[in-house]
Amino acid sequence: MRTLFPYIFERYLAKQIYAAFGFILFALVALFLFFDILSELGSVNAQYTLPIALLHILLKAPGRISEIIPIAALIGSIYVFAMLASQSEFTILRIAGLDIRRGLITLAKISLPLIVLTLVMSEWLGPYTEAISEQVRMKALGSSYGSELKTGVWVKDRLHDEDGNGPIRPGVRYVNVGTVDKDNQARNIRMYEFDPNYRLLSIRSAESGHFEDRGMWALQNVTETRFKETKQADPLNPIYSTQILRYPQLTLESEVTPQILGVLLISPEKMSIFSLSQFISHLRENKQDAQRHSIAFWKKVIYPFTIFVMLALALPFAYLKVRAGSVGVKVFGGIMLGMSFQLFNSLFSNVGLLGSWPALLTALIPPLLYLFLAFAALGLVSRA
After folding, report:
1. At 230, which helix (H) or strand (E)?
2. Given its phi and psi angles, is residue 97 left (phi above 0), alpha (psi -120 to 50 degrees) or beta?
3. In 3D, which of 220, 296, 222, 284 has the Cα closest to residue 255?
4. Contact 188, 177 (CB under 8 A)
5. What angle in degrees, to the nearest 10, is found between the helix axes of 5-40 and 61-86?
6. Taking a C-beta distance cutoff of 8 angstroms, is the pair 150, 181 a contact?
7. DSSP H helical segments within the chain, as ranges?
8. Beta bridge partners of 153
9. For residue 127, what are the CA distances in angstroms to 64, 133, 197, 268, 314?
10. How many Å is the Cα radius of gyration of the chain?
11. Cα 178-181-187 angle, rounded to 5 deg
12. Would residue 232 be called left, alpha or beta, if left means φ above 0 and alpha means ψ between -120 and 50 degrees?
């Protein structure tokens, strides 16, 4: 009986927690989607009809689910533990040998499927449906990625030889893209190239361009203005000559891909871990600040494991006596606890960004602090 007992109570607790978690997750997602629909009604018109707006919101549901899973796990587990305590079932489990250590191990096992669900939603299904959702909205409105930006998207690039096969040249290129259409066709492209001393070398403009798989941009209707300094006796009074060239089509090697342009138009918190790692590498190669994206990267890596932290926070509620508060009060306390974690996590990210703290440390401190609170609460209630 002792051998079978852990498996029996683990299955029982898992069944209860998963059932409560599913119900609360459905309720929270429905509530947030309702608010999203209300905010989207202002954009409904003859082209962007209400059914299309509803489809746009529903396709965002996986992203919402990945954000809500830890809170739903916390509220659901608090409800289950509070019910077990009120019916004296948890007292029986404790008498049968369920101590804090075994309880935490059980919760770690229960959290594994929820961690996998969070990873699937945040890393695969969420970004995929988010992209489809934006495409549905853009197709209905006839807009493009850069329609909300007055000056388009600006990104830093490195210079390569003219033939596209040579090494990287000293200097820098700044690329401005007006819009990016649904098929990743860039329009209104401008490029400013500088030497290592930041003297302007050329200005290149193109009506449109598309990215080829071999790392090249094929630009159409290109006008290029080259600047060359002529040698003068007085270095303080340089004279420049200009040369204007026009090409019906020009192939140019660049490290700026449509994926990089796309991630510039969404917040780092909505990007996948893979997209964040690629963009962070691009920023560091071009000696740009990657602090915000690094914090978002480590938060995305650590975030699924906060589910165990939420379940550990719920365990002390099972040790509270019935007279310490009704089930409803405990569930309300769980809601406040979950909201406080989300607020503190967001606030700490901004503080770490302002203070230029290490990204990993900034992402680790909030869940570690709440895990410490869970252990401290378990220590208090176990002695009561």
Report:
1. strand 216-230
2. left
3. 284
4. yes
5. 130
6. no
7. 5-40, 50-58, 61-86, 89-95, 100-120, 126-141, 258-263, 273-285, 291-302, 306-314, 327-355, 359-383
8. 177
9. 11, 10, 40, 12, 30
10. 28
11. 35
12. beta
Q: What is the C-alpha separation between 24 and 36, in angstroms, rounded? A: 18
The CA angle 88-26-373, to the nearest 5 degrees, is 55
pLDDT bracket for residue 290 (50, 70, 90): confident
Calpha distance 63→95 (Å, rounded):
42
Instruction: Indicate the average pLDDT of the chain.
Output: 81
pLDDT higher for 80 or 261?
80
Q: What is the pTM of this model?
A: 0.71
Whether pLDDT at 165 is above 70: no
Which token pair is 166?
């040579």
The tokens for 79 are 């409800």
DSSP SS3 for 337? helix
Is 368 in a helix, a strand, or coil? Answer: helix
Task: Record the tokens describing residue 98, joined without a space.
Answer: 């369920």
| 169 beta partners | 159
Average pLDDT over residues 40-53: 84
- Could you tell me the two tokens for 158? 């490195």
What's the Cα-to-Cα distance from 315 to each of 318, 338, 341, rounded to whole Å?
Answer: 6, 14, 16
CA distance 74 to 341: 11
CA 370 – CA 376 distance, rounded (Å): 10
Only one residue has tokens 């509530």, namely: 31
Residue 217 CB partners (closer than 8 Å, separation 6+): 186, 209, 210, 211, 251, 252, 253, 254, 256
Cα 176 from Cα 165, distance rounded (Å): 23
Q: How far apart are CA 360 and CA 280, in angstroms?
A: 14
pLDDT digit string, tens, across residues 187-211: 888 999 888 888 888 899 998 888 7
Straight-line distance from the first to the last Cα atom of the chain, in angstroms, rounded to the nearest whole number: 29
CA 86, distance to chain mean position in Å, is 39
Alpha carbon distance 351, 262 (integer Å): 27
Looking at residue 72, its amino acid is: A
Q: What whole-number distance in Å separates Cα of residue 282 and Cα of residue 52?
A: 36
Picking from 263, 253, 249, 248, the residue whose alpha carbon sits closest to that of residue 214 is 253
> Any idea what DSSP says for residue 233?
S
